[in-house]
Amino acid sequence: MHDEALTRWQRGWSASRGWTDYQQVDDVTVVRVDEPERRVQYVASEENATAAAHLALTDCHPPGTSWLAIATDDPDRLAAGLKPLEPVRTEWLMTISLADQASYPVPPPYILEVSATPSVIDVQICGYGEVAASGRMAVLHTGAVADLITTEPAHRRRGLARAVMTALAHAARSHPTTTAHLSASPTGRALYESLGWTTVTPLLVARTAGTPT
Fold first, then answer.
1. Class of domain 96-200
2. Cα separation values, 116 from 38, 101, 126, 166, Å
3. N or C, which end of the chain has less CB nearby within 10 Å?
4. Structural domain boundaries of the chain?
5. So what's the pLDDT on residue 142?
6. Secondary structure (3-state) at 37
7. Is the pLDDT of residue 175 over 60?
8. Which of 72, 93, 69 is nearest to 182 (CA)?
9. CB-side exposure of 136: number of CA atoms within 13 Å?
10. Helix H or strand E segment including 109
11. Whole-prediction pTM value?
């Protein structure tokens, strides 16, 4: 039911992280991450969760390094059914029309810096001699995907994350795309809702059990 949004998010999220090696196997998207603690990520809708779990449990990667992101309306129920996979957290796949996102200025004395390639926009907000907040948005023909939205602890509760999202949306609107997606953490979800983003579906994030060696 949420396959199109899931695919759009995965394509942009992968582009943002530089994970360009991915393929479809049994209606599951297999993303080759090749990082020490996450070698591969399987992305699927709930109807293909069993296939994704089988791939994770039978691949050749060390314990704990095969990850899954499964779109589901009931993460707790799905997590119980995917044992021995280990649930990590629930995230929320969200979307917005870029023209509808609320706008917030960069508060003084902070300074905004924006850089871009044809497919990736990077935003930094600097102040007091350091990078205080940052974010990225991949812009593909399938739409835009916000990623890596971060505010350093010493600079939180000053509206910087809202200003980062404002700058990303403004820059993305110069491209031929109108819709954006992102995957929100439990703490980030409230921020994005305040900007006008809406939830498409929860995402169960899980991995194979065990400590990587």
1. alpha beta
2. 27, 20, 17, 15
3. C
4. 3-93+201-207, 96-200
5. 76
6. coil
7. yes
8. 93
9. 15
10. none
11. 0.95
